[in-house]
Amino acid sequence: MKDQSLPIHPYGWNELAQLYSPALSSSAQNKQLLRWIRNHPQLSDELAREGWVKGTRRLTSMQVRIIVAYLGEP
C-alpha cells in the first residue's frame, strides 16, 4: 500500500500517461492510456461529459478524478 495517494490537480496528458505506464516509451504511454479509456465506455462517456475529447492535452482536476476512479491510482 502506498503512503501517499495521487494528488488530484490538472495534469498534462503525457504526465498522467507516464504515471500509469512508466516502463513504456512516451508514445506507448499515451496510446495505452487512450486504449484504457476507450475500452471503458462508461469512463469515456463520463470524461466526455466533462469536456474531454481525443487529443486533449490538458486534463482538468475532475477529469483526473474520474480516470483514477475507474483505473485506480497509478
Could you describe the 3D structure shown?
By secondary structure, this protein is mostly helical. The protein has one domain. 55% of the residues lie in helices and 5% in strands. It has 4 helices and 2 strands, in the order βαααβα. It has helices at 13-20, 26-38, 41-49, 61-71; strands spanning 11-12, 58-59. A two-stranded antiparallel ribbon has the order 1-2. The longest helix is centred in the middle third of the chain and has 13 residues, at 26-38. The radius of gyration is 12 Å and the shape is globular. The termini are close together. The relative contact order is 0.22. The mean pLDDT is 93.
For the structure shown, list the relevant keywords.
two-stranded antiparallel ribbon, 5% strand, 74 residues, mainly alpha
* Share of residues in helices: 55-70%
Question: How many strands, what sense, and barrel or not for the largest sheet?
Answer: 2 strands, antiparallel
List the total number of helices.
Answer: 4
> Strands across the major sheet, in which order?
1-2
Strand portion: 5-15%
The mean pLDDT is 93
Order of helices and strands: EHHHEH
Number of domains in the coordinates?
Answer: 1
Tell me the span between the first and last alpha carbons: 12 Å
Radius of gyration over all CA atoms, rounded: 12 Å
The helix-and-strand class reads mainly alpha
Q: Kindly state the number of beta strands.
A: 2
Low-confidence stretches: none
Shape: globular
